[in-house]
Specification:
Order of helices and strands: EHEHHEHEHHEHEHEHEHHHHH
Bound molecules: flavin mononucleotide
CATH superfamily of the largest domain: Aldolase class I
CATH topology of the largest domain: TIM Barrel
Number of strands: 8
Shape: globular
Number of domains: 2
Mean pLDDT: 97
Number of helices: 14
Radius of gyration: 19 Å
Amino acid sequence: MAKKFPKLSGKLILAPMHEVTNIAFRIMCKKYGASLVSTELLSANALSREATSSLKLALTDKEEKPVVVQLFSQNTDSIVKAAKLLERKFDIIDFNFGCPSKKIMSQGSGGALLKRKNKIGEIVRELTSSVDIPVTVKIRLGVDKKNINVIEVAKICEENGASAIIVHARTVDQGYSGKADWSQIKKVKENVKIPVIGNGDVFSAKDAEKMLGETGCDYIMIGRGSIGNPFIFKQIGEYLKTGKVIEQTKEEKINDYFQYIELTKRFDIFSIKDAKLKAQEFTKGIPGCSKLRQELNKVKTWEEIKKLVELI
Ligand SMILES: Cc1cc2nc3c(=O)[nH]c(=O)nc-3n(C[C@H](O)[C@H](O)[C@H](O)COP(=O)(O)O)c2cc1C
């Protein structure tokens, strides 16, 4: 029997994103109303060896709960070992069956697994029978246009105990290009009983409303739309409740950036590289942001970065 996917406080979930969804960013998204947040994909192989760098990425805090840890690997023993190591810290374990990165695919992990139905069944079965918390899967439509198998894969995951299915409505070889095909999310929803989380190309409140209406999905997962813009969760949440689109002022955006930086310091993950990148992302769209980008290239210290952002 699958463990029940928890009833979330709202419809919106933060997508796992490599080098984006660290603990500081997750807390910001939570503050703005994301009902569930996720770590980036973490190597189950490295975690099963208790590698320090991976354990650092598996840092969590009660402020962000409920929180998901996403794992990738092709080695079932490592996956189970990593899941057992983390199940007391996290609320849900998500497994990645869709990452298109060459490095991960070449190890036979991520999107490469979508070709191996027996292996998918084995991983989900072993995971769900080894831990006491819900296990979800994040899948794509198939490896490429000629091999769309999302419904079959979704059913295999459900039969083997998955608690919910996240569908990023692109094929693996599409990467992030082209348009997400939401009609496939609808088909998955019609073919499984567990909750379906729709993902792909939700950048605005209207997109969110449209995805819910067109696909009947239970929840929406937002990735790129939240980069430098955790406020998107409040904007969409408000719109779904009231039909009104609220906007953020320049000062509020800058304030969010400084709050994010404070959190990175609090959790000891601050870096100059990240502070510069996030300065660009959080100020995107503000007049003067392209000049800021050039100026950031010239500076080296946090004090200098701070001064530049304050001046924008
Ligand atoms: C920078 C970046 C990093 C990502 N890292 C991950 C990851 O670690 N695990 C994962 O399952 N998907 C990852 N994704 C994919 C997103 O979770 C999401 O499925 C995809 O971006 C589509 O959603 P969107 O259109 O809302 O961005 C990443 C995407 C981006 C842009």
